[in-house]
Specification:
The complex is a heterotrimer of chains A (about 700), B (about 525) and C (about 100).
Chain A lengths: L7 H18 L8 H22 L9 E9 L9 E7 L1 H26 L6 H19 L4 H19 L7 H31 L16 H11 L14 H19 L8 H4 L5 H10 L1 H11 L1 H4 L3 H22 L5 H21 L3 H28 L12 H4 L1 H15 L5 H19 L2 H33 L6 H4 L6 H16 L6 H7 L5 H7 L8 H10 L11 H22 L13 H7 L4 H46 L7 H23 L3
Antiparallel strand pairs in A: 1-2
Helix pairs in contact in A: 1-2, 1-4, 2-3, 2-4, 3-4, 3-10, 3-15, 3-21, 4-5, 5-6, 6-8, 8-11, 8-13, 10-11, 10-15, 11-14, 11-15, 13-14, 13-19, 14-15, 14-18, 14-19, 15-17, 15-18, 15-21, 17-19, 17-21, 18-19, 18-25, 19-25
Chain B lengths: L5 H18 L2 H25 L13 E11 L2 E9 L3 H19 L7 H20 L3 H10 L1 H11 L4 H30 L8 H10 L11 H19 L8 H8 L2 H26 L1 H6 L1 H20 L4 H22 L2 H32 L7 E2 L6 H14 L6 H14 L7 H9 L1 H16 L5 E2 L10 H19 L2 H11 L11
Antiparallel strand pairs in B: 1-2, 3-4
Helix pairs in contact in B: 1-2, 1-4, 2-3, 2-4, 3-4, 3-11, 3-15, 3-20, 4-5, 4-6, 4-11, 6-7, 7-9, 7-10, 9-11, 10-14, 11-14, 11-15, 13-14, 13-18, 13-19, 14-15, 14-17, 14-19, 15-16, 15-17, 15-20, 15-21, 16-19, 16-20, 17-20
Chain C lengths: L4 H21 L3 H26 L3 H31 L13
Chain lengths: ~700, ~525, ~100
């Protein structure tokens, strides 16, 4: 009997179908292709729910699924690896499938209001892009090996290019699209080396072993074995004479390159703020559920491999913590609504990386989940504001929108409270757990790794204040005070198709945190840490959080310190409240001023994003392009010069010899006669007659 | 075995077709030539569907559609007409027939004078290309190999751009001298083999060389030196055709001057002759020499990839961009070949096929834009996406194919090459070399995205006095067909990768299939 | 008494040298043509002389061929001279020094 797992490929295939339908037939449909997208993502959502229920054991006995479905490249010889595509469904996959298809559905609905109602052209292309985007992300989510993950990862990059550059008639979007693709491509370059390296090292890229007549091992499993009993015992080939642990660290860091690019971590975060040039629903999709989430999801997916390398973990934690703080400070001075949100995304993904680096697998997945909900909400809310403001995004032109668009205001507020980490909204619980995990593992571990984790924790904690501050600065500037322009006084109303997704997500942002209230559990003893339980169970033992806990302890030697969750939670909540309070004092007034001006030089630095873009543009244009020009000069001058030189020499020699060919018959005859005589003489001499 | 038929049919149809088209009035030539060229497509597709030979043609594997006919008796050597196909040559043959038809269709718009001669020459070129990939006797192969140059010379020299004479002569002389160099190398081998061979049959020569003991001292040159010298000369000769840095400078000039369909054939098929010959001669016959010098050879491959990509970055002419990136892409083939792993050889061969399709697609896409705008300069055009949406859509897809987007053939080919090269035992510091080469995928994205941003997007403007309208259907159809092929091969490389592996694995396992 | 072969050869050499001298010194196309005829006939004399000497008819047969060829050559040559005259108003071979004009 066909179970839910047989339909998992259809979860990605449906949006793919929507892509085809929208692209080729969208112009004949009344809503220009939105129908196809909505139906397909709704179908995906239903199938994802069914899958999740099956994973939970409600509608079937097998709680996980892992099969190779298609041989992409068959390696017939022994020494040639075979590359396959397959499906892996475990609790993590099921959760992510739900998130992606839900957000995508809501974004599709919202687009009816944001794109159709605004009379945009090129909608079939837009909905085709959304469909392909969703399909690639879903394919990435259920990929059962690293190569397949990479393939869909790249498709995600393509879709981001197409959608960010949707308004190609202006100068900005195509440039931003190019930057997004190029910067992430730079990260993917390292990822690709990592993929090739993993296959060359282990002969497989499976995330989890496939049980069967002949068990196919996964690469984290083989790596674990190699560290325990030596590389050759496990049938693993390392390179450059490195030991298993060192080589695995190299591989892990290479793959991390792709993660840093896609999840917009320092130093490859620069594409993300520019990507705001795309339509706002696309931003919601990119930030909440698809592209940016892909990076963090990948680390979670192959977490068993990263746990084998404490060095890699420490780097992840440090990058994450630093990015969280770094991006949050930049968010403080931005004037455009979407820019603030963009930097908050970078910062929030930094938290997830911090959690992963600190061994807080569940915390990271938890924050990924809650963030997906509240960031989608915030972007859609921003979209609603942008519709109302006739595509004006500068917050200084807004103000006082609270009374005029209450649905948007209250849902946006819910999302903001979640983002700022105010109890009991979703963000509080997840961010608190991230920081808690970083703290206890930092305190518990010895040596440099403990120090690094604590450094990450400190930066993450500091970022809490900034996050709360910029979030509420945004809320107050947009919705409170007096309207500062005519548009703000009389905003354009929005319809149900905008309000409905906002309402759904607004409720979500307030409640999603309840799936994992660890502090409450610790205090009351009630078994309400559902997400922990969800990720800890499963038929594939090697991808459960229980197993990850063992690895963390046994292999990475990261220990937990005994510490209650209340005190750290209180600290971060206090910091968040302080941030909100600061924003309240400064900006919740009828006529707010640009207090950031007082920062002076620091503001300039922040407005220029610490000159990150400048040096990257310099690397691309100042160095690479100049090098290319030099190479071109060399090619035209030296390499081709030699070729043309040879031809010139032969032409010159020819032109000299040509003088013999005077065209006068008599001269030819003379030459012939002379040559004949000479030849005869030569024969005579050589023949010895003379 | 006497005459099998299909290959002869292909040759006959194309040659007779060429003559017929020469004699046809100009106004019918285009349609007639295209119609005639469908016959080879059908025949080669049929050949693909019934193909079931295993093993490498030169190491004694099965051959499909083999024909032998005594030709000339030359002292001890019996020369024969000997043709046949294996898993390496059949995909390239398919590439030739399919790409020729599509190139012919894409000529309808841009070619407006001396049409019967143009189309006749194109068919003649197809005939000689089929011969190159099918011939198994050295002299026969050499005849076809050289004959390719003649139609190509006229196609560039007559229908080309302003500097066509320079480009055509450069192309002709450069590649001709290269053939001479290669010929000297191969002739030295034949004389060195002395009595141990009785014909110029390539399988016989290959097997004699692979067993190793048959090479004798020739004019005072010891066998090891002779091998090395012959290898070097042949490599240099074929490297011009590929082209490998630093023997590449004829290529951009030829591409820039050649009309679009000719560029398609040049990049799509003619460059593959070079890598095909490298595989057949250098890496099959003198494999040990190649292994011993892998470090040097791979350096040429890596340099071609990175240097070609950098050069492409510095160009403003769209065709020059694609031309230089062809150099870059062909560098991957060198990397794959020299790895001496199953996926290395397989990926290299697959890359030949894939690059044939993708570069053809790319040149056609540039051609479609040129047909409408009459300029190819980045900076002269911008924002034409609005005016010709479908053509631009395919252009974008093609560019992403070139950048190695998964589920398109370029990614499959490059990935297989990388996988093969990474674990190579032959290349020194193989993982590092592979990683450096892979940086090409970043640079390629850089220049293609930059060029697209400047030309396709933004506000519409055009420096030339033409009005851009939707591209005609006949211009877009070949693009779409190629795009479908590229996606099909990228999603299911197994369509040809199985037969390719059958043909290349014997090179690693002592001449026989390991399964 | 038969004439010894050497005499024939000397005669042939003399005729040949006269022909060569003519070609080298004259610029009139008609004189040129006549000199070429002399060269051919010098060869003919040789052929016939050796043929007679060896008692083998092949040489004589070849002479017939040569004569036929010479006749054809004169026809073509005079045709060329006529064209030359038409174009240059002269039959000086040194003036026609290019392939096209």
């Amino acid at each position: 009997m066909a179970g839910a797992y047989d339909f998992v490929p259809a979860i990605a295939a449906l949006p793919l179908l929507a892509f085809v339908v929208s692209l080729f037939f969208g112009q004949y449909l009344p809503r220009r292709g939105a129908e196809a997208g909505i139906v397909a993502t709704a179908g995906s959502l239903v199938l994802s729910m069914w899958t999740a229920l099956t994973v939970a054991g409600v509608t079937g006995s097998a709680t996980t699924y892992n099969e190779n479905l298609y041989t992409w490249v068959a390696g017939l010889a022994d020494s040639a690896v075979t590359l396959r595509l397959g499906v892996l469904v475990d609790p993590l996959t099921a959760l992510m499938l739900l998130i992606v298809s839900l957000i995508s559905l809501l974004v599709h609905v919202f687009s009816l209001g944001y794109m159709n109602d605004e009379g945009e052209t090129g909608l079939p292309r837009y909905y085709a892009g959304l469909g392909l985007f969703t399909a690639s992300m879903l394919g990435f989510v259920f990929a059962n090996n690293l190569l397949m993950a990479f393939m869909f990862f790249e498709l995600v990059g393509l879709c981001s290019y197409l959608l960010i550059g949707f308004w190609f008639r202006d100068a900005g979007p195509p440039s931003a699209a190019k930057k997004a693709f190029l910067v992430t491509r730079f990260g993917d370059y390292f990822f690709l080396i990592g993929v090739v390296g993993v296959f060359a090292t282990f002969g497989t890229g499976l995330f989890a072993p496939i049980e069967g007549a002949e068990t196919l091992h996964s690469f984290p499993e083989l790596a674990e074995e190699a560290i325990a009993s030596g590389a050759s015992e496990a049938g693993v080939q390392t390179f450059f004479g490195l030991g298993p642990e060192a080589w695995f660290t190299v591989l892990g860091l290479l793959v991390l390159g792709g993660v840093v690019g896609k999840s917009a971590q320092f130093p490859l975060h620069t594409w993300l703020p520019d990507a705001m040039e795309g339509p706002t629903p696309v931003s919601a999709l990119i930030h909440a559920a698809t592209m940016v989430a892909a990076g963090v999801y990948l680390v979670a997916r192959m977490y068993g491999f990263y746990l084998l390398s404490p060095t890699a973990l420490a780097i992840i934690a440090l990058v994450g913590g630093f990015t969280a703080l770094f991006a949050a400070t930049m968010g403080v001075v931005k004037q455009e609504l979407k820019q603030v949100l963009a930097y908050s995304t970078i910062s929030q993904y930094g938290y997830m990386m911090l959690a992963l680096g600190a061994g807080g697998y569940t915390a990271a997945v938890f924050h990924l989940t809650t963030h997906a909900v509240f960031k989608a909400l915030l972007f859609l809310g921003a979209g609603s504001v942008i519709i109302a403001m006739h595509h004006e995004e500068n917050m200084w032109t807004m103000g006082g929108l609270r009374e005029r668009m209450p649905v948007t205001y209250y849902t946006f507020l819910s999302g903001s409270l979640a983002l700022a980490g105010i109890v009991p909204f979703a963000g509080f619980w997840s961010k608190d757990e991230v920081l808690y995990e970083a703290l206890i593992h930092g305190l518990g571990s010895e040596g440099s790794i403990g120090t690094l984790l604590l450094a990450g924790y400190a930066m993450g904690l500091l970022a809490v204040f900034f996050t709360a501050f910029y979030t509420f600065r945004m809320v107050f500037l947009t919705f409170h005070g007096k309207p500062r322009t005519d548009t703000a006084r009389d905003p354009e109303p929005v319809r149900w198709n905008v309000k409905l997704p906002l309402a759904v997500l607004g409720i979500g942002a307030a409640t999603v945190g309840f799936i994992n209230m660890v502090p409450v559990k610790k205090v009351t003893g009630a078994e309400i840490d559902y997400l922990h339980k969800w990720l800890a169970h499963g038929g594939i033992e090697l991808t459960t959080s229980e197993h990850y806990g063992e690895l963390l302890h046994d292999v990475a030697h990261i220990e937990q310190a005994e510490l209650g969750p209340l005190a750290p939670g209180a600290v971060s909540l206090l910091l968040a409240l302080a941030g909100v309070g600061a924003a309240w004092t400064l900006y919740n007034v009828p006529e707010p001023e640009e207090h950031t001006d007082r920062l002076g030089g620091v503001k300039t630095l922040l407005m220029h994003n610490y000159y990150q873009d400048e040096y990257q543009v310099w690397l691309a244009q100042g160095v690479t392009v100049q090098l290319a020009r030099a190479a071109d000069k060399f090619d035209q001058g030296v390499v081709d010069g030699v070729v043309n030189g040879i031809s010139s020499v032969s032409l010159f020699v020819g032109s000299r010899f040509r003088r013999i060919q005077s065209g006068v018959v008599v001269n030819y005859a003379t030459l012939m006669t002379l040559s004949l005589v000479l030849l005869l003489l030569a024969f005579v001499v050589a023949g010895g007659v003379l | 075995m006497p005459i099998a038929g299909p290959i002869e049919a292909l040759l006959a149809v194309t040659v007779v077709g060429a003559v017929t088209v020469f004699l046809t009035p100009d106004e019918y030539a285009a349609k007639l030539a295209t119609g005639i060229s469908l016959v080879p497509v059908a025949v080669s597709l049929w050949m693909y569907s019934v193909f079931e030979a295993g093993g490498n043609a030169l190491t004694g594997g099965d051959l499909a559609f083999e024909s032998t006919l005594a030709w000339i008796s030359l002292g001890q050597y019996e020369l024969a007409y000997h043709v046949g196909l294996d898993g390496v040559s059949l995909p390239l043959l398919l590439l030739t027939t399919v790409l020729t038809t599509l190139a012919l269709v894409s000529s309808w718009t841009p070619i407006g004078e001396r049409e019967s001669q143009f189309y006749g020459l194109m068919l003649l070129m197809e005939a000689s290309l089929i011969g190159v990939f099918a011939a198994l006797d050295f002299l026969l192969w050499l005849v076809f190999w050289e004959f390719v140059l003649i139609p190509m010379y006229f196609l560039i020299g007559v229908w080309g751009g302003p500097r066509r004479k320079y480009a055509a002569i450069k192309f002709f002389v450069y590649t001709n001298v290269a053939t001479l160099v290669m010929f000297i190398g191969f002739a030295a081998l034949i004389f060195g083999l002395g009595d141990s061979i009785s014909s110029f049959d390539l399988p016989e020569i290959a097997q004699a060389l692979r067993t190793g003991g048959n090479l004798e001292t020739f004019v005072g040159i010891e066998p090891p030196v002779l091998r090395l010298a012959a290898f070097t000369l042949m490599f240099a000769g074929f490297a011009v055709k590929v082209p490998v840095f630093p023997l590449h400078t004829w290529l951009p000039d030829a591409h820039v001057e050649a009309p679009t369909p000719v560029s398609v054939m040049l990049a799509g098929v003619l460059l593959k002759m070079g890598t095909y010959a490298l595989l057949r001669f250098n890496f099959t016959m003198l494999g040990e020499t190649a292994k011993a010098n892998a470090g040097i050879i791979v350096a040429f491959g890596v340099l071609s990839v990175i240097y070609g990509a950098l050069l492409a970055l510095a160009q403003r002419d769209l065709k020059r961009i694609v031309a230089y990136s062809s150099i870059s892409s062909m560098g991957y083939v060198i990397l794959g070949l020299v790895a001496f792993t199953p996926h290395g050889f397989g990926g290299a061969t697959f890359q030949m096929l894939s690059h044939g399709l993708i570069s053809g697609l790319m040149f056609m896409a540039v051609g479609v834009i040129y047909n409408e705008t009459h300029t190819r300069m980045v900076g002269d055009i911008s924002g034409i996406a609005d005016r010709m949406p479908w053509a631009v859509g395919v252009f974008v897809a093609a560019a992403f194919g070139y950048m190695g987007l998964p589920f398109m053939s370029g990614f499959a080919a490059e990935y297989i090459v990388f996988q093969g090269a990474f674990a190579s035992q032959v290349i020194p510091a193989a993982p590092l070399v592979t990683a450096v080469t892979m940086f090409g995928i970043v640079v390629v994205a850089g220049y293609l995205l930059w060029a697209m941003q400047r030309t396709l997007f933004g506000e519409y403007s055009l420096e030339t006095d033409y009005d851009v309208t939707r591209a005609p259907v006949q211009d877009v159809v070949p693009l779409v067909v190629l795009l479908v092929l590229v996606i099909a091969l990228g999603s299911a490389p197994g369509l040809v990768y199985g037969m390719i592996q059958d043909a290349v694995n014997p090179l690693l396992y002592g001449g026989v299939l390991p399964w | 008494m038969a004439i010894v072969t050497q005499y024939y050869l000397v005669l042939s050499a003399a005729v040949f040298c006269i022909g060569v001298y003519g070609i080298l010194t004259r610029s009139n196309a008609l004189m040129f043509l006549m000199s070429v005829e002399l060269l051919l006939n010098a060869a003919n004399i040789n052929l016939v002389a050796f043929s007679f000497y060896y008692g083998n008819l092949t040489g004589q047969v070849f002479t017939l061929f040569t004569m036929a060829l010479a006749a054809a050559e004169v026809a073509v040559g005079i045709g060329i001279i006529l064209v030359l005259y038409r174009n240059f108003e002269d039959i000086d071979v040194t003036k026609a020094a290019t392939m096209r004009w």
